[in-house]
Amino acid sequence: MEELWPWILPLPKETKEQYEILLSVFKSKVSLDILLNMDVNKKNYQKELVEKIPHSNKSIINVLKKFVRAGILEQGTEKIKVDGKEVWVKYYTLTFLGKYLKLLLTPIDRLSPKDVKEIVEELFYFYAKSIAKLCFDFNISHEVFHNILNKLYLTETIKRLKDSRKKIKAAVFGSAALDFIIPLNEIPVGHDQTITVRGFISDVGGSAANVAMALSRLEVPTAFSGKIGGDYGGRKIVETMLNENVDISSIVIDEELQTPQSIVLVGNNGEKRIIVLLRDNPALSLSSPSEINWSLIDECKIVYIGEVFVEVASTIASYAKSSGKWIVYRPITPYAKMGIKKLESIINNVTTLILNEANWNLLKKSMSTLDLPKSLLNLGPKEVIITRGSKGVKVYTINESFEIPSFNVKAVDTTGAGDAFVAGYIKARLEGKSLREAIKYALAVAAITTTKLGVRTSLPRADQVEEFIKNYTLPS
């Protein structure tokens, strides 16, 4: 038995009453025919039932009486006019239990969405009420049931998405998280300092997830592959990324893990502090090559590798290179701290290596022969890009090295600017722009992102970037 009928039958607590109800319904064909011919949300008149059901009047009326006694139907009478005379007629309506017995016997395609919604909500309410009582009676954590629902919802979502995938141009591998962004007048520095805030923004984040959503906003068909927990955070990520038109059919759900969360403190001048909440079992990254959807790499033109465990990232990079793909790698701080030797198997296979200044310095300290970023080209990349915030970007290739300044904008929140830069760069490269043109486009995407609070909500659309570039010029 692979799948049960979706309508779960609610029954009374007492076994004797359960038996009486089931016997009254399934004892004869008359019972079944009556239920099949009853309207879920209207009065069902006895006279009309007798006329349309192919059984004797006596048999039908006897079953109707049994249904009333068993709590399947409620009986009523009303006065109507027939041939100018007022007469009393009997009618029956389905009880909560009666509706479910009716639904149990009704093909789902005969039900209206409105009926389904109302009945499912009512059913869920009764079951949730019972579960709440059980939690208290047997000292069970209610979180267990939240997680079960989240897990099943997420699993069904991903299952359906796999059957309706669209072609992609960019495949993004990395992590997703739930961020809590708190705006402050100033970042607290003193001891025992108490501050008040007017509110915060809760949204989906994680560096690679930001890159995927930014690419989608820029009209690049994009797939995201990472790992999430079967919890509220995982559900929020799935729902948000679906709304952003990101292909998430390759997300891995692990109900034993917890979706990462972080707190981002943002000051008036754009200064920020990121606090990552330590979880017992965080869903940080794909942890095995068996979790990789290789068809994403086969199908796309550019592969982006973000915060992925080194062994898995190395496997992705090697396969992508052998498949002739453009590979962009951007190790964030925890990975840069590992040093060149640890990351070398990845860097050997990438096309474009992107680092911010702080992470470049971390890599530089890990190997004495690294005196300039250009030295990284000896390890395999064709391009090395060093992002420097408001100071712009330095770029190194075998044939040239150059700098491009940032756009001059008033920064409100720099969180996610690096992610936006990467998305802009990939978008431009996919369109065949030169290296310099791609860097300028990427800087424009990053600049726009810093002008609003939050990351996802500030990621620009392609038309906004084009308008921005028309109206602004880079400093000479």
User: Total number of β-strand segments?
Assistant: 17
CATH superfamily of the largest domain: Ribokinase
Going across the major beta sheet, what is the strand order? 7-4-12-13-14-15-16-17
What is the C-level CATH assignment of the largest domain? Alpha Beta
Q: Kindly identify the CATH topology of the largest domain.
A: UDP-N-acetylmuramoyl-L-alanine:D-glutamate ligase
Q: Write down the domain tally.
A: 2
Reported CATH architecture of the largest domain: 3-Layer(aba) Sandwich
Low-confidence stretches: none
Please compute the radius of gyration using only Cα atoms.
31 Å
Strand content: 15-25%
Total of helices? 17
Percent of residues in helices comes to 40-55%
Mean pLDDT equals 88
What this model shows, in words?
The N and C termini lie far apart (71 Å). The chain has helices at residues 15-26, 29-36, 46-52, 57-70, 96-104, 113-138, 143-162, 207-217, 232-243, 294-299, 310-322, 333-336, 340-347, 357-366, 417-430, 435-449, 462-471; strands at residues 44-45, 73-82, 85-94, 170-173, 177-183, 201-205, 222-225, 227-229, 252-254, 261-266, 272-276, 302-305, 326-329, 352-356, 383-387, 393-397, 401-404. Helices cover 42% and strands 18% of the residues. Strand 8, helix 9 and strand 9 (252-254) form a beta-alpha-beta unit. The protein has 2 domains: 15-138, Orthogonal Bundle (Arc Repressor Mutant, subunit A); 149-186 and 198-471, UDP-N-acetylmuramoyl-L-alanine:D-glutamate ligase (3-Layer(aba) Sandwich), CATH 3.40.1190. The strands form 4 sheets. The protein has an 8-stranded mixed beta sheet, sandwiched between helices. It has a 4-stranded mixed beta sheet with strand order 6-5-10-11. It has a 3-stranded antiparallel beta sheet with strand order 1-3-2. The protein is elongated, with a radius of gyration of 31 Å. It has 476 residues and is of the alpha/beta class. It has 17 helices and 17 strands.
